[in-house]
Amino acid sequence: MRPRVEEVRIQGLGVIDEAVLELSPGFTVVTGETGAGKTMVVTGLGLLFGGRADPARVRPGADKTTVEGTLRVDPAGRAAQQVLDIGGEVEDGELIISRTVSAEGRSRAWLGGRTVPVGTLTYLAEDLVAVHGQMDQQRLLHPGKQRAALDRYAGDELLKPLRAYEQSYKRHKQVGELLAELTTRARERAQEADVLRFGLAEIEKAEPRAGEDAELKEEAERLSHADALRGAATTAHTALLGDPMSGPEAVQDAGSLVGTARAVVESVREFDPVLGGLADRLAEAGYLINDVATELAAYAESVEADPARLSAVQDRRSTLTGLVRKYGVDVAGVLDWARRSAARLTELEGDDDRIEELTREHDELTERLTEQAGELTRIRAGTAERFGEAVTGELTALAMPHARVSVEITRSAEFGPQGVDEVELRMAAHPAAPPLPLGKGASGGELSRVMLAIEVVFAGADPVPTFVFDEVDAGVGGKAAVEIGRRLAKLARTAQVIVVTHLPQVAAFADQHLVVEKAGDGSVVRSGVVALDREGRARELSRMLAGLEDSELGRAHAEELLSLADAAKAVV
């Protein structure tokens, strides 16, 4: 089952207040008087499939534009799977898409009942619809668009080589930029290397150790207060064990006092176990006093006032402070800077080797790109010939029997993201005319037919389920208009075609005819979009032909057009 658009609801868009379009699977035309809102139908479809949101299109007095579409899709097809992958729903092959645009420019989108980025609608539309507004003819004149059109026609034959080229091009660009940086910044990198070498040499000469700054600080404090430390230790020792050189009048030391207390308690401990326990604790206190006093004596002997050592410690601390000021918050930070700088210096000193390696890779990539670009050119050249012949054949059917479309491919000197090919569509309006770029060789009406011819060609090579055209027949009339209607009818055999037209010759070929009616106040209400029956079609075609719905001559001509179209469609 081919996907198609079943229904579109539009609210608050341009002159449209509210409109409902029920679309047939074949060829549907939308007609109406100037200003009735025909183009807004195409604009609404464009919004539905991710088109640019323009808040100026919101109907005056409305707070937002809303477009909702119901699509029929294959539940097992790619479009349905894309919706399911993002958490949306497809019920019985029916997919609901919705888009709103506020008067302030905010845009929101829903797909299968789930809020999605607007870009998701654009991605989905690639497999579902091709919307052609009046500006698409001008876009076709851009060289990049013409190359994209040719590549699209080439299809799978070009796709794999193009992907391989794009990967090589991306790496080639990265390597080229890195090479340019390495060579143009050689002076700056050399200066950076010199700074790193100086710092590493300074640190290496000082040979700092982790934690050395804390150790030196402690030693400096001890040396600076050596006399006070020794005096305190000696005084404490005397207080605990006494001074052997003092006379009998000396104050008793702590050891003697504890010993006296222990002796008194020991003499009566046998009379009370509690007192015996206290005697044991006094014994322990005596042992502790002796131990502490011994260590105090040893400490007092170890402490020496050493001015030379103190000077050396202060000099070392000054050296480390200088390193910390330059390279880190402490000695550990200095050592970390040295490790990182050594690695960076190794990288900088290896630039020459790196440049040589990158140059070799760049040359290899250039050679590979040259081969891959040549393959792309070969495929495009073959495709260009087939494409030109196919479009020319379609133009013959569109009442341009002498026109010939060709594709000019020239190679640029520089590699580009899609190769080295510059593609230009040219047209010779008659055998004696030289092939000229489309913008110079085709009039407005001819350009419309060229675009239609290209879409018809694409429909055979890369079919899209739904085509939407806004006045693709602009600038043409008469026999050419009849032929455009015939080709659109042919396209509708394999795809859903929706066309906004002002030409009765095109409208006559439609399978379904919708007319947008303008209300008295210039707006379009729900009932303003009407599906016409055979009689209604004849009346609308008469209006389009003669400007008068009830003109007998116009009605006769309209009936003739409808009969002609019916006969033509029977053999399309």
UniProtKB/TrEMBL annotation:
Superkingdom per UniProt: Bacteria
Classification via InterPro entries: DNA_recomb/repair_RecN, P-loop_NTPase, RecF/RecN/SMC_N
Alphabetized GO MF terms: ATP binding
Keyword Metal-binding: no
Single GO BP term: DNA recombination
Keyword DNA damage applies: yes
Residue ranges constituting the RecF/RecN/SMC N-terminal domain according to the UniProt record: 6-518
Coiled coil: 348-375
SUPFAM superfamilies for this protein: P-loop containing nucleoside triphosphate hydrolases
Transmembrane segments: none
Gene3D superfamilies tied to this protein: P-loop containing nucleotide triphosphate hydrolases
Function: May be involved in recombinational repair of damaged DNA.
Similarity comment text for this entry: Belongs to the RecN family.
Protein's recorded name: DNA repair protein RecN
Source species of the chain: Acrocarpospora corrugata
Lineage, highest ranks first: Bacteria, Bacillati, Actinomycetota, Actinomycetes, Streptosporangiales
